[in-house]
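Hey,
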Amino acid sequence: MMQPMNAPVTWTTGKADAPVGASGHGAWRRVVRKIFCGPGSGDARCGRTPVARIRGFRLYPIFAVVMLTALSGAATAAEDAVGKGETIAREADLRDRGFGDSKTQLVMILEDRQGETRERRLRISTLEAADETEGDKSVVVFDEPRDIKGTALLSYAHILEPDDQWLFLPALKRIKRISSINKSGSFVGSEFSYEDITGQEFAKYSYKWLRDEPCGELECFVVERRPRYENSGYVKLVTWYDKTEYRIQRVDYYTGEEELLKTLTLSEYRQYEGRFWRPHQLVMDSYRTGKKTRLRYERYEFGTGLTEQDFSQGNLKRTR
């Protein structure tokens, strides 16, 4: 039965006059007893009288009800934000599954603080993991300029285990394993890190929806992603997904809760095979260095017949 508004709020431990509710409410009673009666209070009458006292202020029991309601509402809102963030990211992931394998060529443009640029040509091959408990495999190979021609990066993405990455340096004719603690380092002098180059599998992050807002001519969900794996160079990635196709439009990379390191902008999306969207321009702006790296993609090819053998360490030296 609901008590009248002017009735005292009653709670005691194991007494007949305890309020109706789940057994878990005992924890709430202890929290409110501490708030309204003061730490260490052992007075069983505290909270059973019409007025609770704390540091000389008179607080009517109805305030306890209001506070409990607010705390419960805040917890529910936080849970809803997590659930909504996961739903958005999961939908984006599902829409991109099933491509099998792909190849693309692109130009990497490095721009310094003074606006001067250098260009590199490269190609990327990707093999999709058949099992969601594992990540995709990829090979990045540089074709120009001559001094880095043949340099290749092989990546095996994992979920919570460290990604495996190997760099082939043709000048040294050797394969170098990239340590998991060094993956925040610059990838061949660009504003992308080794961590940025590997797969971004759904299960590698926790998620929280932050807000909805316009992003250019589109409307976007803004979702916070936090790496679940060790040795990430980032604390969080704030990500904009458009509401129409769930394509990533922007990512802000934070190395601290409020320390924005760089921003990735993705644009010029094209659709392949009637369902797979790929951006054809990526721009990474670093606020720390004042530099930027631009990636301009050419056409993608899907279903090219790539196999596991194409992504072996032994094949790195034979890559042309």
